[in-house]
Design a protein that fits this description.
single chain, mainly alpha, two-stranded parallel ribbon, two-stranded antiparallel sheet, 8 helices, 62% helix
Length: 256
């Protein structure tokens, strides 16, 4: 068993701090840029390096807005109605992946219309660096000692600073989950697949694996279990899984 005493701050430079989480975010952004440049060129998508940088900016803004709005509306609306100024305080935490994905998809859709490129061509390559970025983000969550798992006595259990008892390191589990998605998408990226298949495969894989991971993750304190033993994350993942399967069927049927 492991006692978590990792300092989330990598460096202190005067009044400024460089935190591991922020560093992982920057690394993810840089890796995403070079991966997208490589994949766009390989797939002969009409985007240059400046276009890729703009695409990433749109995607990041859409992700943050979507994740925050979704979290406010779905995860903790009564609190934010009582504390409306906290809605913009994203530095206090409170981002929902499902909303972030919707926000990113809307932002990319707008961008593709503006640039007159195919939406599915872009999201099919975008989910590859996304999966890798999510893996890095979960490592950042582990270092921060947040989003930890349920109480357990497994040999690799972790005692987090603000949590009672030893816990599943669910952040590490989720990081491996996202790496599995990344390598799966990377392996099949050069195969002849219908447009949209890669994106919807990401949706199906993420939702199915997230459904499993939630059994190890501590439920949100303000919500607990929503339906029986299911958390909000699991309910949303079931919906996401069904939508993903439906659209995989559609893209295959369209290409017959």
């Amino acid at each position: 068993m492991f006692v978590h005493n990792i300092d989330p701050v990598l460096l202190n430079i005067g009044p400024f701090q460089i935190r591991y989480y922020s560093l992982f975010f920057v690394i993810g952004f840089v890796v995403a840029y070079f991966l997208l440049v490589h994949l766009a060129k390989k797939k002969e998508i009409n985007l240059n390096k400046d276009d890729i940088a703009d695409l990433l900016l749109y995607t990041i803004l859409g992700t943050i807005l979507g994740a925050r709005i979704f979290y406010v509306l779905v995860y903790n609306l009564p609190y934010y109605l009582s504390n409306p100024f906290e809605i913009i305080a994203v530095w206090h935490g409170g981002l929902a992946f499902h909303g972030g994905l919707i926000g990113a998809a809307i932002a990319i859709f707008y961008y593709t219309k503006k640039k007159k490129v195919d939406f599915y061509e872009i999201v099919d390559i975008s989910v590859i660096p996304l999966a890798l970025g999510l893996a890095l983000g979960r490592l950042g969550n582990f270092i921060n000692g947040e989003l930890y798992g349920r109480i357990t006595d497994v040999p690799w259990a972790v005692k987090f600073p603000d949590a009672e008892g030893f816990r599943h390191p669910s952040q590490i589990y989720e990081s491996f989950k996202n790496l599995l998605i990344f390598f799966t998408l990377w392996i099949i990226k050069d195969k002849k697949l219908p447009k949209g298949f890669m994106f919807w495969l990401f949706v199906v894989m993420y939702s199915a694996l997230r459904l499993v991971m939630e059994f190890f993750r501590q439920p949100d304190e303000q919500l607990g279990f929503i339906i029986g033993f299911l958390t909000m994350g699991q309910v949303l993942s079931i919906i996401m899984f069904a939508v993903g399967l439906f659209f995989i069927y559609r893209v295959y049927k369209k290409n017959k």
